[in-house]
Amino acid sequence: MDTHTRYTGLIEHYRDRLPVSETTRLISLGEGNTPLIQLQNIPRLIGKDVDIYVKFEGLNPTGSFKDRGMTMAVTKAVEAGSQAIICASTGNTSAAAAAYAVRAGIKAFVLIPEGKIALGKLAQTLMYGAKIIQINGNFDAGMALVKEVADHAPVTIVNSINPFRLEGQKTAAFEIVDELGTAPDYHCLPVGNAGNITAYWKGYSEYSTDTATHKAVTDKRPVMCGYQAAGAAPFVAGKMVDNPETIATAIRIGHPQSWDLAWNVQKQSNGWFDSQTDQQILAAQKMLSQYEGIFCEPASATSLAGALQDIASGKIPEGSRIVCTLTGNGIKDPDTAIAQCKDAVPVTIDASLDAVKKAILDNI
Ligand code: F0G
């Protein structure tokens, strides 16, 4: 008997916990099953007895966690007969929507804020061949337009207000529980629209709920910690923010779409929201690269930046097991990465053995 099982994506893997039937055509690129990496050097560096893991979602097919939601949303859109999808995006959703639309053979329209999406995300979305509509406005303005236009054109919205997105994204929590054997004590996430924090909570909750069809995998759920960029922190302000600004363009959002859902997560999990300055976010991004060999995009590092602050203050106590989601790959935003490494400009030397030898010996 063939004992090998090919991993073909998260819908197939968690089929019995997702809204698909035997006849549903699955639109998949093999997403999910991302590594949960235990940090080794940073806990030592900060001198705290904490067990920190990062869930590296940047290793999904289009380089972000959006693929989890998009496989599900596009699968259901196609099942319902949709010929076109649409989203507003700060970049990652547009890349994922574009890729899964190609896979399905349908059209993708994406609204992006002009000049405010990272270069890699633009390159991807162009290559996948989506119809890109740039607007003179931010994500929030784009989102409002997408909701309006969907009433006037035959397009399915695939932003996280589409409930199938959260269904797909909840599987990240399943994977963590499957790997650790239980939920962590704390789960830290960057928050923009707050769809992802909502999805993780749904995932942890479903794994801890004994239903007629599913037995409980764990009865533990983590404290959920949502971190925002200081210039785009409506959950910290307690109200919508009209002109959000941050270098972490992925989470440059002032009017989160999952407002009520995320407040429920905070209450039910005894968690909290907090913010990090751009400097703290970039410092955490660099720290992950330079001490652990993990390159995530700026917005993603907000989860670790927040965790480190709350570990330092004791709000997250020593002895805790913490998971930080790294939502996107660092390669998505080369401009911000290169600008951060101004002091490490590559040296240019003669193409000779002596010159190379000297360059090594001077630096060893
Ligand atoms: N991290 C990254 C890298 C993101 O791209 C996003 C959202 C988030 C975190 C926040 O997740 O919205 O569920 O709270 N990006 C969306 C986009 C807005 O259009 O790509 P959230």
Structure description:
There is one protein chain. This protein has 364 residues and is of the alpha/beta class. The protein folds into two domains: 229 residues, Rossmann fold (3-Layer(aba) Sandwich), CATH 3.40.50.1100; 97 residues, Rossmann fold. 41% of the residues lie in helices and 14% in strands. It contains 15 helices and ten strands. The radius of gyration is 21 Å and the shape is globular. The termini are far apart. The protein binds ligand F0G.
Poorly predicted ranges: none
pLDDT averaged over residues? 96
Task: Provide the gyration radius in Å.
Answer: 21 Å
Total helical segments: 15
The helix content is 40-55%
CATH topology of the largest domain: the name is: Rossmann fold
Bound chemical compounds: ligand F0G
Placed side by side, the strands forming the largest sheet appear as: 1-2-10-7-8-9
Strand content: 5-15%
Q: Return the string of H and E elements.
A: HEHEHEHEHEHEHHEHEHHEHHEHH
| Largest sheet data | 6 strands, mixed
Shape: globular
Specify the CATH architecture of the largest domain: 3-Layer(aba) Sandwich
CATH class of the largest domain: Alpha Beta
